[in-house]
Write a structure and sequence with these properties.
By secondary structure, the chain is mostly helical. It has 10 helices and 2 strands, in the order ααααααββαααα.
């Protein structure tokens, strides 16, 4: 840690490079996990034909986060190592496949850029610490969940549940006598309260309207956030996510980008609120309690 005290910019350079590398990997996760899940579901339901939902380069081939090697979804041409450099390759190729010239989705450089920016913010907030080492993978996980939910209206159990269990386990450890993010009891209660709060809201909404207001993936994501942050910050997460959802959703409807009948994924708002709470939750709660004139010894 001494090198970071002597040369503080080294931390941001290392974090930026690591964020860039993982940003590139997150594009693979966001693209392949839904296809992997779809394949698994179709194998359990033989009536469906895999060709109807899978890209042609994935049909009847091994498909996971390792195989196949990166290829162009349109022409099937292999993506060489020099064309896999995050952001830079996209710029040099002018956003097109090197072999067939098909436009490459802007989502790839966008996710890579956002990953770097968010990683640098995390490094700025936590500095060289255990919190930084854990907050970075949490940030990357929340980002990839948001992308998948936006594209597929899906929050995979294979990502949300490990995130929750990791939060519960992390609460057992201390550094220098202090908890990393929250203690074990707050983590367990937070995980349970996170799930049950949205599950209860879902049941009431369904009883009143006869419609499903959200998916079970949202329950599990809030449960994971509760495991990492503790029950004390759950009201902040719910408030921020509801406010963001209302503002962004209303704006999209007003601009004609969505409609009242079209479901809007709630996962990205939960992820956004959870990330803010992870970095500044304590300060925001203290400020809120101070404004309300309540005792500051919360939690």
């Amino acid at each position: 840690m001494e090198i970071f005290e002597i040369y503080p910019n080294v931390l941001f350079v290392i974090t930026g490079l690591v964020g860039l590398i993982f940003g590139s990997f997150l594009t693979v996760v966001a693209y392949r996990v839904p296809i992997m899940l779809g394949r698994s579901w179709r194998e359990q339901c033989a009536k469906l034909e895999a060709e109807d939902a899978e890209p042609k380069h994935a049909v009847n081939q091994p498909f996971n986060l390792i195989k196949p090697n990166s290829i162009c979804p349109e022409c099937g041409g292999a993506v060489t190592a020099r064309h896999k450099i995050p952001i830079l390759s996209y710029i040099l190729l002018r956003g097109c496949c090197a072999q067939c010239g098909t436009k490459i989705s802007m989502s790839y450089p966008f996710i890579e850029t956002i990953t770097v920016i968010l990683s640098l913010v995390v490094a700025w907030v936590f500095g060289p610490s255990w919190q930084l080492l854990l907050a970075l993978p949490i940030t990357w996980t929340l980002l990839v969940l948001s992308v998948i939910d936006i594209d597929h209206k899906l929050l995979p159990d294979s990502i949300t549940l490990p995130l929750m269990w990791a939060g519960l386990l992390a609460s057992l450890f201390r550094t220098g006598g202090d908890v990393i993010f929250t203690n074990a009891s707050s983590s367990v209660v937070g995980a349970a309260a996170g799930y049950l709060s949205l599950w209860g809201t879902y049941q009431v909404f369904k009883l009143v309207t006869g419609k499903e207001g959200m998916g079970y993936g949202d329950f599990k994501l809030l449960s994971a956030l509760g495991a990492w942050l503790g029950w004390q910050l759950l009201p902040l997460v719910i408030m921020l996510s509801a406010a963001a959802g209302a503002v962004i959703g209303t704006t999209m409807i007003a601009l004609g980008q969505s409609s009242r009948e079209k479901p809007i994924p709630f996962g990205p708002y939960l992820a956004m609120a959870g990330w803010i709470a992870l970095l500044w939750g304590g300060e925001l709660m203290e400020s809120y309690l101070l404004i309300m004139g309540w005792p500051r010894s919360w939690g």
